[in-house]
Amino acid sequence: MGLKQYFGFISKRISALLQRSQLFQHRWIGYIIAVAIYVTLLLIPLPGFEPSAQRAFAVFGLAAFSWGTTLLPLPVTAIVILFLLPFSGAISAQETYAYFGNRAVFFILGAFILASPIMRSGMVCFVVEYREVIGNSFQNVSRCKDK
To answer: What three-state secondary structure class fits 16?
Structure first.
């Protein structure tokens, strides 16, 4: 049995066990278990691990549990990992976010995140109408012409 087949077998067995159990009908139990895994891996002495490696391993344990049980959606788990790595002291925030490019990437991401609720709320039409009053008009804002 190859390594890939072994992990596939283990994954199927764990999934079947979780489907049969009623453990995660109450999701808060899963959250408590995830935090317990993180704290346990953070506090138990692991020989051969540097402190930063142990902190990163604790984040990995939490992530593996969350991904394996689908306790949180995968994108949410990824964001939690991005938060926990610098928060736990495994690596610095600059090193963590350096893998995603420079600060401009996060600036643009933040702009998109802020733009979505502004568009849904209709505030963009208010801005367009205000700009038309003071003389600077937007020609191609079809979303606001209906209103």
So the answer is: helix
Q: Give this prediction's pTM.
A: 0.54
Q: How far apart are CA 33 and CA 87, in angstroms?
A: 20
The residues, ordered by sequence, that sit 6+ positions from 96 with a Cβ below 8 Å of its Cβ are 82, 85, 86
Q: Compute how many other C-beta atoms are within 10 angstroms of the C-beta atom of residue 88.
A: 17
Contact 34, 62 (CB under 8 A): yes
**Rounded Cα gap, residues 48 and 36, in angstroms:** 22
One-letter amino acid at 19 equals: Q
State the residue for tokens 């506090």. Answer: 43
Digits of tens for pLDDT over the chain (147 positions)?
A: 565 666 666 667 666 655 655 445 667 788 888 889 999 989 988 888 898 899 999 999 999 998 888 887 888 888 888 889 888 888 888 888 777 777 777 788 888 888 878 777 777 777 766 665 555 555 555 556 554
For 138, the token pair is: 């937007």
Its sign, for the CA torsion 9, 10, 16, 19, is negative
